[in-house]
Backbone:
């Protein structure tokens, strides 16, 4: 698990440039799937289904990550960047970033020794983010980067005590790696002739830049026309601050089963069954409410076609959308166990 | 050892201000081979000596402070997160989501926690997180953390270094280990048989909390002259407000009324004579470096300050250009040879 997560986390694949991570995922899952295909906008769908026709279930985890694009290069050879997704801008000062061609840069920061009075005690302006790559001027910079280039945080995987992992995109990729585990189990179940659902595993694109109802996963749902759907995504966690600042979700507290987010009231029956299943099988879960928080891909899936009963499962993640997101193996295992019971085992 | 390898090896040594003893053995085995003697004094200064073997040799002090900015464990929350305080002028803006190393019973990795954007109030992202609200996640329970990282445990930044385009190097603690590397290479290059001075190289302690230790080293050595090497601000957007210097422009000699103007002028002249690129900066009354303290210690020491320009000072990714380090080494060699060189018998 650690190895796969590290591998996935180290791949740089910001929204709009998911190909590199798609290749890694495809290589991992291809031997276990009936088919792996891409739709016109880049969502990957892996199918495992039994011989007999049965219920179609769509499971979805996004494979992209937050990142940035080069907006301009100034005469000193520094890149002015714009962010892709809800990057925690307070984590940017002095941080290493990686352009997709491998060039490393550092987000510039004015030395504290020379800050004006008005600047003391404030973060660096979030709309003026510059990256230093070491080029002496615009011409030299042009050999390494150009306007429109994509980048992400510098990959740096850290293994902490008690199976706690940190790194860029670790939350999203923990979901991806859980899906990969599940695909292997679904394959085994198919061989043992115990698989009773047609499984459509979707690795979606552009989730991090989703604004309002612009969710790329919609097209995957359109093609699959599932009978029900489950979205596996990160759950933002702030369990280290004072009570009133918390969402209620904790790292290490098990999967997050939220009844609703700002975009979706999750299917009541699916939700109730999921809670029951956790209780019955002893799977760690938590029920915070994200009703006032930006919703996920469920919002796009559940309105598709004639409407799709949808459930959302979260892996609690600290430091979401920073260069060092934090997840715990305990929660990833709970997610795998839940999905196994939900999808494969006879309920 | 090559310059870059030496710098990276020095950066690897943990030396958060006040904990200069932490990697003492590793530091000594790295540095001592360039020197004849090594002393470690009561306030944390490492002093390395290279002798010329002549009687009544002059004593030249080359000082580079060895300590670096960092953090310290101030408390442990009931959930096992570490509360922190600053050790030296850490730029607090770089702390959210920073990778750190906790130097407790074992060296363990940690990540500073930050509130996700999704959970912030409007405009909250503009506010700097106060230090007392910043916590370090080390993945442990309170009971585990109390054993592994008790209160008072130092915390440093991730020591991994990177090379950028154009040869620039990036990493933590380049303030002031790039000076140490440059000085060591210069000292190793000196032909001591042709010099009438002993070289005292102090990797001094506790500069980052306000120059608290170097005077002790100065009293111990009683140098005839001193050259302090430190870092200064490389030109970057926003830093023009103070007198700053060009990256790749060569070492920066401080012109100041505080220090010894003759030695300072001699250094600038020597650079010109040997065609070593050099820059100057005016710091009229105070340099805020060890030079100020050495100058008045032990009855007064003619002292000059030479600095290497860096970007992003006091962050976890300080950036230096190897050319500036090389030219600093070259300048140091030239100055010592000019001042203390003796002609060998054959040449007489």
Residues:
């Amino acid at each position: 698990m650690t190895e796969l997560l590290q591998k996935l986390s180290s791949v740089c694949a910001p929204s709009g440039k998911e190909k590199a991570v798609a290749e890694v995922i495809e290589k991992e899952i291809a031997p276990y799937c009936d088919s792996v295909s891409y739709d016109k906008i880049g969502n990957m769908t892996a199918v495992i289904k039994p011989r007999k026709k049965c219920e179609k279930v769509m499971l979805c985890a996004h494979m992209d990550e937050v990142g940035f694009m080069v907006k301009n290069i100034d005469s000193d050879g520094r890149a002015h960047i714009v962010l892709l997704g809800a990057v925690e801008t307070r984590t940017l000062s002095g941080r290493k970033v990686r352009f997709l061609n491998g060039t490393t840069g550092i987000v510039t920061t004015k030395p504290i020794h020379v800050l004006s009075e008005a600047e003391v005690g404030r973060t660096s302006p979030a709309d003026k983010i510059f990256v230093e790559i070491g080029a002496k001027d615009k011409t030299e910079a042009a050999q390494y980067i150009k306007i429109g280039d994509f980048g992400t945080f510098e990959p740096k995987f850290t293994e902490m005590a008690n199976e706690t992992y940190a790194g860029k995109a670790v939350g999203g990729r923990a979901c991806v790696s859980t899906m990969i585990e599940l695909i292997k189990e679904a394959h085994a179940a198919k061989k043992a002739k115990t698989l009773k659902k047609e499984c459509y595993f979707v690795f979606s694109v552009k989730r991090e830049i989703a604004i309002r109802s612009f969710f790329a996963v919609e097209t995957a749902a359109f093609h699959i026309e599932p009978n029900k759907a489950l979205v596996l995504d990160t759950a933002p966690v702030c369990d280290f601050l004072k009570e009133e600042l918390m969402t209620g979700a904790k790292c290490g507290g098990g999967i997050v089963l939220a009844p609703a987010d700002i975009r979706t009231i999750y299917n009541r029956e699916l939700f109730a069954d999921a809670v029951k299943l956790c209780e019955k099988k002893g799977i760690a879960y938590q029920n915070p409410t994200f009703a006032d928080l930006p919703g996920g891909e469920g919002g796009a899936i559940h309105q598709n076609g004639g409407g799709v009963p949808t459930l959302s499962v979260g892996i609690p993640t600290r430091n979401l959308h920073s260069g060092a997101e934090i997840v715990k193996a305990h929660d990833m295992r709970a997610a795998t166990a839940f999905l196994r019971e939900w999808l494969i085992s006879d309920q | 050892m090559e310059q870059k390898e030496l710098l990276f090896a020095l950066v690897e040594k943990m030396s958060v201000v006040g904990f200069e003893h932490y990697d003492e053995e590793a530091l000594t085995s790295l540095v001592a081979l360039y020197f004849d003697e090594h002393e470690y004094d009561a306030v944390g200064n490492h002093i390395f000596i290279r002798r010329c073997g002549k009687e009544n040799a002059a004593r030249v002090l080359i000082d580079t402070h060895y300590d670096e900015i960092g953090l310290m464990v101030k408390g442990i929350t009931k959930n096992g997160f570490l509360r922190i305080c600053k050790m030296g002028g850490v730029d607090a803006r770089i702390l959210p989501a920073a990778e750190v190393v906790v130097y407790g019973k074992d060296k363990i990795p940690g990540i500073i926690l930050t509130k996700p954007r999704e959970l912030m109030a409007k405009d909250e992202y503009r506010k700097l997180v106060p230090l007392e609200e910043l916590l370090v996640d080390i993945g442990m329970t309170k009971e585990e953390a109390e054993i592994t990282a008790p209160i008072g445990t130092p915390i440093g930044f991730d020591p991994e270094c990177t090379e950028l385009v154009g040869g620039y190097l990036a990493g933590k603690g380049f303030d002031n280990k790039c000076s140490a590397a440059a000085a060591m290479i210069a000292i190793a290059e000196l032909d001591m048989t042709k010099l009438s001075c002993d070289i005292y190289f102090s990797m001094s302690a506790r500069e980052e909390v306000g120059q608290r230790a170097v005077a002790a080293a100065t009293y111990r050595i009683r140098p005839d002259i001193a050259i302090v090497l430190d870092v200064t601000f490389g030109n970057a957007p926003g830093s023009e407000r103070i007198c700053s210097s060009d990256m790749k422009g060569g070492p920066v000699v401080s012109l100041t009324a505080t220090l010894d103007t003759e030695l300072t002028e001699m250094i600038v002249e020597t650079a010109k004579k040997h065609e070593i690129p050099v820059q100057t900066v005016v710091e009229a009354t105070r340099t805020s470096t060890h030079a100020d303290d050495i100058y008045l210690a032990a009855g007064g020491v003619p002292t000059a300050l030479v600095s290497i320009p860096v970007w992003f000072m006091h962050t976890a990714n300080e950036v230096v250009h190897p050319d500036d380090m090389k030219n600093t080494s070259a300048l140091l060699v030239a100055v010592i040879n000019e001042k203390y060189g003796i002609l060998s018998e054959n040449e007489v």
Remarks:
- The first strand of chain B starts at residue 37 and ends at 40.
